[in-house]
Amino acid sequence: MIEVTNLDKFYGAFHALKNIDLTVHQGQKVVICGPSGSGKSTLIRCFNGLEWHNSGRLVIDGIEVYEGAKEIRDLRQEVGMVFQQFNLFPHLTVLENLTIGPMKVRKISKAQAEETARNYLDRVHIPEQADKYPAQLSGGQQQRVAIARSLCMETRIMLFDEPTSALDPEMINEVLDVMVELADTGMTMVVVTHEMGFARKVADTMVFMEAGQIVEISPPEQFFTNP
Ligand code: ADP
Ligand code: ADP
What residues flank ligand 1, with Cβ below 6 Å? Predict the structure, then answer.
């Protein structure tokens, strides 16, 4: 699904990603961890065209990704992303937040989009919030709306960039629980997180980054027993 070969990325003169090699297969759950500033966010932002690499190769679901590639629209239909800050439209209701993308991008009718949206609101356990505005919801509820929004786009890969870091402690588990349920559906997931309990439960591959490099890729059994 995701094939990264020899990838390098610079911000000006700053070498943010160094010689990254990583393969993610369909259905795989990869958890990326490592210190702040090590390049985790930059790496996954390259996976949906929010950042561009400078050299090396990145192929996602058969799409060769590079700056200016015509297929980038297709890429964004394949790859969803959930951010630390929920990035919902504040002036739209929950239901509108969930339907606007699919209506535009997938060109489905409003009725169809709303049916899909309500279905996914059920899946993230907040069916009753459809007509509220984001500011009327808790952080945990907003993040579950953000996950539902990505699901409504029917993407095949979901990226999570520290999805629980902006949440109050009591809301972290409600979001992680939804992510565990999503993992159980077979979704391909790449998750940047410091939540090691979640990683132990869900990850089949742990990636540890430091100073722009991947310094370890291992199964969780091995990762969590290393000294
Ligand atoms: P992480 O997600 O591991 O915290 P990031 O990928 O956000 O790390 O950042 C890696 C490094 O790249 C950091 O030193 C950060 O300051 C730098 N960086 C990130 N985004 C930019 C940018 N847009 N311009 C310049 N430097 C950036
Ligand atoms: P995260 O914790 O998710 O990695 P950051 O706080 O590092 O996010 O960065 C937030 C935003 O600021 C990102 O869009 C990133 O690209 C940008 N950014 C981070 N570091 C720098 C930097 N040194 N110069 C310019 N932009 C930066």
Answer: 11, 14, 16, 36-42
